[in-house]
């Protein structure tokens, strides 16, 4: 999430332009008080039978128990002002403040040097800005800030931008040689590649909820994104598919001035997030938060969301490989505190009962390959951030049944996906090898697939202990640049680490069995789109339905999924379908939990019944909108 990527000052393509002399803005994040107590409390809110089950906190209660004291904030503010810095805003949850001033003042406080850079070769760095600034070496946190529990200063670098997690078949070699065979074997009524939210409802048994009158009414769902969009796109999509829904239900909140608009900015991502989440919960209210694309934008956006405490559920379909925060990949500057700072916002969401979903990634088991593609770099087994946060529910991807035919010389080559399976385009590998003599890398199909694997940073959370199939990190994984002589080994990843396993749950994400999107920025109605960035907002819409049925917030979903897996397995009462076929280029779909699809795919109607059988108590009612103001 920090603005960063493998720093290669030796490379001719990254030019150092000298010291930064501009005004910069950062966000200073404080550590929560009583962190262990907060973690225990969150665990109790999602554990049936616990005295605090679904007893979520209001913003005021959170601030009272877990935020730094007003004294800490005052002392920190006076200290920063003494260096000529200005505190522009203190977030209502008291965990963060935005601070602006000349770069020279930040250099004095943090004992570092801020430099400007120019990047010419985006082959190596497709997600890096062309012009950016970053610290020359690790900033040094002064004693006074440490004593007042400042854990991160975010925004010193604006180098790196997040990537949206959607995929299409556009970049595959000879994509036009692959045709859909009509009448593919699936319970969806639409055409693969042109699926709508109605097909999602058929595939995952959502229709019984609509039949009983559950449509998201009274619930507010949120979207967090880095690109602005046109509200009319969402209404156009819902009208096009004949979906009845609440009128004028979308509110936009621009954080730090908001994100950019346009195809390159990712406006299509925001449109699809709104269309999918709001389409599955057609009477829910929606708030779309957008912020500038970068580490500070992300921090400010999530601290704004939890400080507002207005959304009941939320999805986010952007990310970066978690190892991109490591000092070895950033010229010695450690950005892992940026992850910690964001993770705290997710913890606050959890204790307030907001259910968060994020896309697990679209680069299969090899998350870095989207940003640092083979064959220029090695492809170690890596997972995406923030999917690897223990306080996020990570959405993985599957392929629905589909039949394709490939042009092969003067004949054709049949490609048949029989049952729902873990998504990767490995099922196209034989076709490309046989018909075109191309490897998966040459064909452009490697490593497209649902993100998954084992974090090498975040420890295995309590809810994944004792789950068969949960793994430790694999040995022999390193990040090496191969197209230089001699090659450069930047980082050897931790082996045998008991890390957070990703994803938690999956749904259809393959562009070949993908979806329609309406995005003016990208030219209107598009088809053949997929990626785990569809699954996160779809689950968001599902959670909004469950919220309504439950009469209040349900909190962090991931632990509740694993409790159900322990209790029901995949038996007749299970809310899950086990996905035991396919792979994500490394991890295979096997019986039980796996790193390709998590616990499998949901039976939403059954899941909803199980999630709304136990009501919380105490503050149960204040999961609604009057709470936290």
Count of distinct strands: 30
Spatial shape: globular
Q: What is the CATH homologous superfamily assignment?
A: Peptidase S8/S53 domain
Helix-strand makeup class: alpha+beta
| CATH overall fold name | Rossmann fold
The number of domains is 1
Strand content: 15-25%
Fraction of helical residues: 25-40%
Largest sheet: 8 strands, mixed
Low-confidence stretches: 1-12, 616-629
What is the averaged pLDDT score? 92
**CATH class placement:** Alpha Beta
Termini separation: 29 Å
Radius of gyration: 23 Å
Tally of separate helices: 16
CATH architecture: 3-Layer(aba) Sandwich
List descriptors.
629 residues, alpha+beta, 4-stranded antiparallel β-sheet, 30 strands, globular, disordered C terminus
Describe, in plain words, how this protein is organized in 3D.
This is S8 family serine peptidase. Keywords: Calcium, Hydrolase, Metal-binding, Protease, Serine protease, Zymogen. Its cofactor is Ca(2+). One of its GO terms (molecular function) is tripeptidyl-peptidase activity. With about 625 residues, this protein is α+β, with helices and mostly antiparallel strands. The chain has a single domain, classed as Peptidase S8/S53 domain (Rossmann fold). The strands form nine sheets. Strands 11, 12, 13, 14, 16, 18, 21 and 26 form an eight-stranded mixed beta sheet that branches. It has a four-stranded antiparallel beta sheet with strand order 3-4-2-7, sandwiched between helices. Strand 12 (about 250-255), helix 9 (about 265-280) and strand 13 form a beta-alpha-beta unit. Helix 6 (about 195-205) crosses helix 9 and helix 14 packs across helix 16 (about 605-610).
């Amino acid at each position: 999430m920090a603005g960063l990527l493998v720093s290669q000052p030796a490379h001719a393509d990254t030019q150092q332009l000298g010291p930064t002399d501009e005004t910069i803005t950062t966000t200073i994040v404080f550590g929560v008080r009583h962190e262990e107590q907060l973690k225990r409390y969150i665990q109790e809110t999602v554990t049936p039978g616990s005295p605090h089950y679904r007893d979520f906190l209001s913003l005021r209660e959170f601030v009272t128990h877990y935020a730094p004291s007003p004294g800490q904030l005052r002392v920190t503010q006076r200290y920063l002002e003494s260096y000529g810095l200005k505190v522009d805003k203190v977030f209502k949850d008291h965990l963060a403040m935005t601070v602006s001033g000349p770069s020279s003042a930040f250099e004095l406080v943090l004992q570092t040097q801020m430099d400007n850079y120019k990047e010419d070769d985006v082959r190596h760095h497709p997600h890096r800005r062309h012009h950016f600034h970053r610290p020359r070496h690790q900033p040094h946190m002064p004693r006074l800030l440490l004593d007042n529990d400042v854990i991160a200063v975010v925004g010193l670098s604006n180098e790196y931008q997040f990537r949206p997690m959607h995929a299409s078949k556009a970049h595959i070699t000879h994509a036009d040689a692959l045709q859909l065979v009509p009448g593919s074997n699936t319970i969806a009524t639409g055409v693969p590649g042109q699926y709508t939210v109605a097909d999602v409802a058929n595939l995952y048994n959502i229709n019984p909820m609509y039949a009983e009158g559950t449509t998201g009414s009274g619930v507010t769902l949120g979207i967090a994104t880095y690109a602005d969009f046109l509200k009319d796109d969402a209404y156009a999509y819902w009208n096009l598919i004949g979906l009845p829904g609440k009128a004028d239900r979308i509110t936009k909140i621009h954080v730090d001035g908001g994100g950019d608009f346009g195809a390159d900015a990712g406006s299509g991502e925001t449109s699809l997030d709104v269309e999918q989440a709001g389409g599955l919960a057609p009477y829910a209210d929606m708030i779309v938060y957008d912020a500038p694309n970068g580490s500070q934008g992300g921090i400010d956006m999530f601290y704004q969301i939890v400080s507002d405490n207005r959304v009941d559920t939320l999805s986010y379909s952007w990310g970066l490989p978690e190892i991109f925060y490591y000092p070895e990949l950033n010229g010695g500057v450690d950005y892992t505190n940026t992850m910690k700072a964001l993770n705290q916002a997710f913890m606050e969401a959890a204790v307030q009962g907001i259910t968060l979903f994020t896309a697990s990634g679209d680069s299969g088991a090899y998350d870095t390959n989207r940003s640092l593609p083979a064959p220029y770099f090695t492809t170690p087994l890596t997972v995406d951030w923030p999917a690897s946060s223990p306080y996020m529910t990570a959405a993985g991807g599957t392929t629905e049944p589909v039949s394709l035919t490939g042009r092969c010389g003067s004949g054709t080559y049949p490609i048949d996906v029989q049952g729902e399976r873990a998504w990767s385009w490995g099922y196209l590998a034989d076709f490309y090898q046989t018909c075109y003599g191309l490897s998966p890398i040459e064909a452009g199909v490697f490593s497209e697939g649902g993100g998954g694997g084992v974090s090498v940073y975040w420890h295995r959370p309590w809810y994944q202990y004792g789950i068969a199939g949960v793994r430790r990190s694999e040995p022999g994984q390193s990040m090496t640049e191969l197209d230089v002589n001699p090659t450069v080994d930047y980082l050897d990843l931790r082996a045998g680490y008991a890390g957070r396993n990703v994803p938690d749950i999956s749904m259809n994400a393959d562009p070949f069995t993908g979806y329609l999107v309406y995005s003016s920025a990208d030219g209107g109605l598009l088809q053949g789109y997929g990626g785990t960035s569809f699954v996160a907002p779809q689950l968001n819409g599902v959670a909004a339905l469950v919220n309504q049925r439950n009469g209040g917030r349900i909190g962090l979903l991931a632990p509740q999924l694993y409790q159900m897996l322990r209790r029901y397995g995949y038996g007749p009462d299970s809310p899950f379908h086990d996905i035991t076929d396919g792979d994500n280029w490394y991890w295979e779909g096997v019986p039980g939990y796996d790193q390709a699809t998590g616990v499998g795919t949901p039976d939403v109607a059954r899941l909803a019944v199980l999630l709304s059988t136990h009501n919380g108590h105490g503050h149960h009612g204040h999961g609604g909108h009057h709470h936290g103001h």
